[in-house]
Design a protein that fits this description.
heterodimer; A: 311 residues; two-stranded antiparallel ribbon; 14 helices; 2 strands; globular; B: 327 residues; two-stranded antiparallel sheet; 12 helices
Chain lengths: 311, 327
Amino acid sequence: MATVTQPVSKKATFSDSLIAIVDRLKTPVFYAILIGWAILCIAPLYFTLVFSLKPVANVYDPPLFWPIPFSLENFRDVIGALPLFPRWLLNSTIISVVVTAFRVLFCAMAGYAFARMEFPLKKFLFTALLISMMIPGQVTLIPNFLVVGPGIIRGGLKIGDLTIPTGFGLMDNLGGVILPGIVAAFGIFMMTQFYKSIPKELEEAAMIDGLGRFGIFFRIVLPISTTQLLTLALLTFQGEWNSFMWPLTILRTPENFTLPIGLNWFRGEYYTLISKVLAGSLFNTLPILIIFFIFQRYFTQSIAGTGLKEG
Amino acid sequence: MAEMVSNRPAGLFRGGNNPEKRKKRSEALTAYVFLLPYLFIFLTFTVFSIGYAFYLSFTRYNLLRPPEWWGLEGYRRVLCLESLLPRGEDAPPLACDDLFIKKALPNTVKYTLIVVPVQTVLSLILAFAMDQKLRFRRLFRTIYYLPSVTSSVVISLIFVWLFSPLGIVNQIFNLDINWLNDPRYAFYTIMILNVFTTSGTLMLIFLAGLQDIPTAIYEAASIDGANKFQVLRYITIPMLRPVVFFVVTVGLIGCFQVFDQIYVMTSGGPLDSTTTVAYLIYKWAFRDTTVKMGQAAALSFILALIILVFTLIQRRIIEGSGSVGSA
């Protein structure tokens, strides 16, 4: 073994002693940082829980840290007495489930085509896909609103006696929130990268057995990509469940609101009933938290993955 | 598909006799069937939309009457450069809207220049701490991700309540600040919220980057007698540079588009102190009593340009300070 000869100088000893100090302090300091930030992360949700378990009348009364007096009235009201809350919950569920189902299927299909098939304009379309991910949503917000809702031309395009509608007429309709979300460039990119990474042998064997592209895709490719599909489904569901700007633009009557839009509207209308808003907030947060705890691995891996792919 | 027998008369398609070409064509057709849903949505909601937004940005459009060609007038009104010139007391009122140049742009730049460095440094420190072989790491990771899983609206509503005059923050720290109604504090409250919600996610990205540095490099450095500061200075930080670039880019794009929190917490107020570019686009297009769709469209392209320029500048800075390119 080669022995390392350290240049002996005053500087080296100084930095050595500094390192010794840092080494001794390192662990407690890092623990303090980790615990401190953990408390900050939990605190808002904890206080939300505590105050949603207090009656409306006592909401500003001490104590701060425990729900005394304790009451389930807010949760009861949110589920029962205020009929709009269950409605919002249902709307949010419908939108999130439908968007997720379509997006996972359509992104997998497009991703498979980009990864495995040869077709004219392939390079061009894939570059267009990558570029489209960099366009801020504000640019397409106004035209998308017009296309989904009132139409590009008010009253439709008139050619002689014929009137052609220039919009989908889905204003204030859950369908209008769903439609532009059924495919996403990011999902296609993710699935393309995945399908490029898996070996072709399985598909080639199936092809020799006489299975067509559709048969291969539905019977072989989809089943072996369940992990990736689940990750995409989780990210999509979370995004749609929490989404705000687009549903806010499309939905106009309280019956059609999603939970985030509804909660914000309710806060504006009845700002004294803050504990109801807090209870409702927990209804928005809990499903995602439960999903997150069950599938944590997929969430964290996908996040770490985005960084690595770019880095 | 390869064995597909065609009953079509030969020569109907160019090269119809050539099985190789026929196979290619059938594959291309299948591929387009797979791409059909995407192409429909992409052409409608991306290609057409961008084109139409570009057209709208040169028009005056209030939804009631058809768009009316306006040339660059919309852009001129958005930029409103004459509002920067010194004006006399009896000068006629401005024929433009100075909300972008006087409020939204400075606010958004200030927001980005504060939030991006703070959340980057904070998440990097957290990632270093998480990278030590400490106990309960998995528990910490789960907790740190909580604010990111919660919806932006819900967390904003909770913050509105926490930072209300009688709220918990004032009670715990014995303060008497009207956080969200005071132009001096409102914007900082929203910045705190943003740092709070994004740092967990960014920490995970940094952590993945740290764990991705090959241990062989560290071993080689320790054999060469490098001390811990040297390892940090000459190995960890340079190796992490691409990840820093990614985190800063994500942060920049997020900050320039901040909307939900502004809408829920302050609606741009008080005294426009929290009006950002993304919020102003929405306000002009959907909230003002006379909607200004054309002007909002013009501003959305200006926003896209600003984001592009900032991304390029920071790429220059980060890549310029070292020779490590994208891995």
